[in-house]
Design brief:
Blueprint lengths: L8 H101 L4 H17 L12 H26 L19 H11 L1
Helix pairs in contact: 1-2
């Protein structure tokens, strides 16, 4: 028969509690030591990190300023070119393209076989794309039109002013009764004169 070891559970529990208490004490000491080391590391690293950041800012500031100045000069040089391009696109290319699309659609809608309509549409669109668009002439507004508009606005303002003035005037109703005519007023001045003469 095999011998079963005799294990004292109370003794094991007591030893486990002692080990736990010892581990807690050592863990507390290690936590305090780790906190001290972390604080020392922070104290050591903070000034160095601040110095590195300041140095990076000092080195980057002139580079950013020069890049900004170069970008501004490039933008200033490109502005007339871009406005000219915008003018060409809006005033010339888009009207040409619109005309080419409408003329090719008209040519495709015409009667005939498909190949002849396709050729007609291609030639119509090519002609419309190569023909410069007419620039709209800004017509000068005549003096007569301006004078008429000014007169109409002045008359409208005067009419509105007259209507407002007329509405602000009191209105008398010719059929209303004169409520003040029915009141009898005693003459107190005669009574006062008699009393003054009696004294």
């Amino acid at each position: 028969m095999a011998r079963t070891p005799n294990i004292d559970t109370d003794k094991l529990k007591a030893q486990g509690l002692q080990l736990r208490d010892a581990a807690a004490v050592h863990a507390g000491r290690l936590a305090v030591r780790a906190a001290d080391l972390a604080e020392q590391g922070l104290d050591w690293a903070a000034p160095r990190a601040q110095a590195a950041l300041s140095s990076a800012i000092e080195r980057a500031t002139p580079l950013v300023e020069s890049a900004s100045e170069r970008a501004q000069s490039v933008a200033d040089r490109a502005q007339p070119f871009l406005s000219d391009i915008h003018g060409h696109v809006v005033d010339d290319y888009l009207p040409r393209l619109n005309k080419a699309v409408s003329e090719s659609a008209t040519a495709l809608a015409a009667e005939g076989d498909l190949s002849s309509r396709a050729r007609a549409a291609r030639s119509a669109s090519a002609k419309a794309l190569t023909t410069p668009a007419r620039k709209k002439k800004c017509c000068k507004k005549g003096r007569l039109l301006r004078a008429l508009c000014f007169t109409a606005l002045t008359a409208a303002a005067a009419g509105a002013g007259y209507v407002l003035w007329k509405r602000s005037q009191p209105i008398e109703d010719p059929w209303a009764e004169d409520y003040w005519a029915d009141l009898e007023v005693e003459d107190y001045s005669a009574d006062q004169n008699q009393e003054a003469s009696a004294e």
